[in-house]
Amino acid sequence: MPETPPSVRLTTTEQVATVVLDAPARGNALDAAMLERLEELLRGLDPDVRVVLVRGAGERAFSTGYHVPSLLAELEQGPSVSDFDGHPLERALRALEAVPVPTVALVRGNAYGAGCELALACDLRLAADDARLCMPPAKLGVLYSATGMRRLLELCGPALAKELLFTGDVIDAGRALALGLVNRVVPAADLEQAGQALAATIRANAPLSLRHTKTIFARHLAPPPLDAAALADVARLRDECFRSAEFQARSRALGRRATPVVPPPAEG
Domain residue spans in the chain? Predict the structure, then answer.
């Protein structure tokens, strides 16, 4: 039986939209086409939706990150990390953060690299007890976007954010809860039910209040965006890493092992 092509699916039931990263054979690793579809679905949500759940297909992973063979193919075409606005990962992350209603990541199994970034871009994270999170840029020799680093910084503070980025260590659900990276941990078998219960609790509240609360967090309580000079400096530093011989060697070694753990060049 032929393998189902990687995709992103959306279903809506009782004003709760569920977005599924659907590439289980490769740990729901992301590529440009999946991210473009994700952005399309998020920007086209039914206006009656009150909660969005995001999860990976199957039991193995939320998402193991960016599909390394796809990343290498992109880099061979000559993209620059300074062209961050147009990259599908950055567009998808912006679309996720722009969803006007609460978003909840249901994290089961591995959430690595770009997969972890997607989870962090949601408003809330509900983790199974088998969840494993990792931010591995140092292992590959690259830099994450400043926005990706900032999400991590806001959730767990500078010292712990640096530790996670400097070591690239995989952390389990209990440690993620202690660090503030996830809101709750439940048994893996109960994750879907717990996610639906949380969505029902949120959905029962006044929709205008929910939307305006999220708007205030986004517009007035978030840190100011980086200025043009800062963005240009971050892009230069990232470009230097992506063009380095060390990155080329490490990424190709990962590609040969088919270990999809790294986000593509994206900045914002």
Answer: 7-257
Q: What is the pLDDT along the chain (268 residues), one digit of tens a residue?
A: 456 789 999 999 999 999 999 999 999 999 999 999 999 999 999 999 999 999 999 999 999 999 988 877 777 776 554 456 678 999 999 999 999 999 999 999 999 999 999 999 999 999 999 999 999 999 988 888 888 899 999 999 999 999 999 999 999 999 999 999 999 999 999 999 999 999 999 999 999 999 999 999 999 999 998 899 998 898 889 888 888 888 888 877 876 654 433 443 333 3
Rounded CA separation 91/75 (Å): 18
CATH topology for 7-257 is 2-enoyl-CoA Hydratase; Chain A, domain 1 (3.90.226)
CB 95 within 8 A of CB 54: no
Q: Which amino acid is at 249?
A: A
